[in-house]
Write a structure and sequence with these properties.
By secondary structure, the protein is mainly α. It contains two helices and no strands. The protein is 62% helix and 0% strand. The longest helix is centred in the middle third of the chain and has 26 residues. The termini are far apart. Keywords: Membrane, Transmembrane, Transmembrane helix.
């Protein structure tokens, strides 16, 4: 008589691993998109007048 070997049922962790990986990658992608759309304030350019004022402050 032949006995059938039944593969063990995957654990919950193994079943959720692809979902967790997908969610983490999606969060990273959203964070990256948000960081690329933020407009940082532009620093003032240094001109001769500004350089003199900066030197005077020092």
């Amino acid at each position: 008589m032949q006995t059938e070997t039944i593969a063990p049922v995957s654990s919950t962790a193994e079943q959720l691993r692809p979902v967790v990986i997908t969610v983490v990658l999606a969060k990273i992608a959203v964070f990256a998109l948000l960081m690329t759309t933020i407009n940082y304030p532009v620093l003032p350019t240094v001109s001769a007048d500004n350089a003199l004022e900066i030197a005077a402050v020092r």
